[in-house]
Design brief:
The chain is mostly helical and 276 residues long. The protein is built from eight helices and five strands, in the order H-H-H-E-H-E-E-H-E-E-H-H-H. Helices cover 55% and strands 11% of the residues. The protein has a three-stranded antiparallel beta sheet. Helix 4 packs parallel to helix 6 and helix 6 runs parallel beside helix 8.
Length: 276
Amino acid sequence: MSDKYLTKIAALLRKAETTDNDHEADAYLQAAQRLATLSSVDLAVARAHSTAQEKRAVPTQRTITIGEQGRRGLRTFVQLFLEIGRANNLTCDIARNSTRVFAYGFDTDIDAVEALYSSLVIQMVRASDEYIKSKRYTQEKVGRWVQVEGARPGWRGPAQEWQERPVHATTARVNFQQAFAARIGARLKEATTQARAQAVQADTAGATGVEIVLRAKEVELQDHYRANTTARGSWRGTSANSGYSELASRAGDRAGRTARLGGEKAIGGARGAISG
């Protein structure tokens, strides 16, 4: 007996066992029995085939280590992971110190996100390192108000003065990596939207109910997250307290546009925590 017939019979049995309509259940069961008789296969064998080949995936939760506490760059690493996760049906909670991400979703989706992250975080770090070494960010200045030295009660001059200084390397790195992560998120979101539209379009007769299946998956993931999350408060995200660098942001966006998204294996095998 070929898998082709076993799969057909198993599908009919599955419909018979899941429908709430007694008449439909009987019709599916009779169809399965007729096909089984013609193919000389026992219904129990078909059920076993269905169990082995089509185990139903269920949402799960996985903890991903981003880096050790105190390491630089953890927040931008988390931002990158979140951008990839959103495009792959994950909902995430973040540890307060940004050392870990708690991902909620299907195993295959979490695997895909980890694989993408393991490659992209290395690309992001390397690209930002190269940009910082180039010193191009020093061509830009950032201004801020500073306290005038000697200003005190009774002082008749201005208490503060505007000063401009070259952008600091830390500011440039943060801005670069923020823009890189945002561009990656936009690229992945566009790819996901296109893939979903193509799947729905291909289902012209509604035979597989692609839209219904995708929506049901979203609802199942939402219910799973609400039932299992222990998050309190909200993640603060990334910031560059020393200012903003337009040049670094543009450079990060360009690097994000050219980063490799698929097909490459993670550099160095299994992903470890990135120190920054």
